[in-house]
Amino acid sequence: TSEAGENDETVQTTLKFTYSEKYPDEAPLYEIFSQENLEDSDVSEILKLLALQAEENLGMVMIFTLVTAVQEKLNEIVDQIKTRREEEKKQKEKEAEEAEKQLFHGTPVTIENFLSWKAKFDAELLEIKKKRMKEEEQAGKNKLSGKQLFETDHNLDTSDIQFLEDAGNNVEVDESLFQEMDDLELEDDEDDPDYNPADPESDLT
Q: Which segments carry the region annotation Disordered (predicted)?
């Protein structure tokens, strides 16, 4: 187990050694039996370290040396945890910043992608115009003329009569409009000696 890190975190591994018949002239078999808080890259580094130390210490009793080397490696790893977290934080901030920049800047406009966009836009616009013209044409076909309305709906023949009947055949007249009629100086065509009813222009001079 490593020494406690900045936030009292530790990393740990359990090593299993199996002696060979020719040990120590031959390296013992070893494996990581279990581990806590180690990443795959850490496990790989520990196995490489064990292979290197076993090779360097052939001919000598080496288990203590191997365990000590791994112990020091675990202490390095726990010290690196803070640095790893800071790097991960910076990486996430950088990715978020790049994503935000991409939102603001969008896709750079080039002649190729502009022409591609314009062709697609024109096609969509043409489709909309065709659809609108078709709808207007269909609406024109469905619209009946006055004659067609009377031919198809016979209720229209007596609609004006029905309207007057509903109103009670009462026509209201504003008599005040005719109060000044007596004051008007109207010429009586019959008193004109030149007036000829058969000739509308006989009273013209």
A: 166-205
